[in-house]
């Protein structure tokens, strides 16, 4: 039987340490195709490129003796572009699994909607229900220690290859920034209700014109709820949230039907 | 009592006909602040700008005699940047309503996750639960006829101002490309399960290098389901889907807890 085919991307770009940590995790499990952005694309969510031509740059081919089965491309587009190009152009058939990350920084709670890492995983899941996992470490440092992701991430990736995921569902996996010995385990949870409280720092450029930089801090609106990803991370667990593409609020739908009467 | 304060943005850019149609709809209902992208940002989803400085360019102030209460800015960022800058920097208090659109083209079904129009509405809803509506017309033409949006859109906007929306919920409103006389009414519905079947057109530039353009077509995976936005639009109705920020799949969450045992 042929080894599983694993497509890997990220949103921190082809040079990010987290991407290469993920490649090392995936290599023993299958043949690996990497298609990752040339540059960082954090916070670009589900953006697709339609106004400039997309280009691919081949960086690595598998060794001829089969010792290293990694093919690698850099792409000038977003994480979602990378998944689309990988799945529809570079591969002749669907991959067995798509992995995105390991992101330098958390994608828990409401950050899921801003995250390029998670958009890439979701894009894969939308393509014939391909199992997909986005992995993130709650440490923004370019030199973060990804070794705890190795042990626990491998187990989760193995489960996804073995059991699959339901149609169009992907996983949002976040790791606390702790040594492996201090991680208490894995919690399946829901997305916490949280908010980015934001503002803009206003500056003046050397030519006298004003400009703005976004700044903000995250607030957990339900710190006492023990079934959320934020609680899991704050209490030493790896959080795993299954993410779906249906954004309909069914409760509000019933309310509107009753009350709005248009 | 002071008139309601309405913040308007879009993803087709400050010059788009649909934006100006929406401003005309909103003007009789309140004071209007427009913050819209300098250029088109379709398909940029919930992207935020963090790598280049954001700038605002003032284009219009209210008339001193109070006859036209529109303030207008162009911004070099994404639709979500426009909402953030408008809500946290330009306004001293929360607006009563945020409107996004009118988009040139549909944002029904799965297109909601790629849509800059809907990301802007969702961003507003995340900011203290401000009521927000994204409006789209299923006609991509720059010169599309927005007159049917005027009558029905006004009614929906009036309801939102009167009744509000539940916390963090926004509305995804799509109009069929039909004359007003042929529109049968408004349907509250759920997001249809659909897929973009995509591929890339490969070309060679004058310098011999390959590049790619995304192309695709939408497929409705449940054409017989009468409770979806796609069904409503195909059958002459305006579709209204309440959209929530919680992307957790609770059914899969229970399955994973039972079956994965990590």
Output the keywords.
homodimer; 262 residues; alpha/beta; Stationary-phase Survival Protein Sure Homolog, Chain: A; nine-stranded mixed sheet; two-stranded antiparallel ribbon; 11 strands; 25% helix; globular
Written description of the protein model:
Two copies of one chain form a homodimer. Chain A has 262 residues and is of the alpha/beta class. The longest helix of chain A is centred in the middle third of the chain and has 17 residues. Chain A has one domain: Survival protein SurE-like phosphatase/nucleotidase (Stationary-phase Survival Protein Sure Homolog, Chain: A), CATH 3.40.1210.10. In chain A, strands 3-4-2-1-5-6-7-11-8 form a nine-stranded mixed beta sheet, sandwiched between helices. A two-stranded antiparallel sheet of chain A has the order 9-10. Chain A is globular. The model of chain A has no long low-confidence stretch (mean pLDDT 95). The first copy, chain A, is built from six helices and eleven strands. In chain A, helix 1 crosses helix 4. Chain A starts with a strand and ends with a helix. Chains A and B meet through helix 2, helix 3, helix 4, strand 8 and strand 9 of A and helix 2, helix 3, helix 4, strand 8 and strand 9 of B.
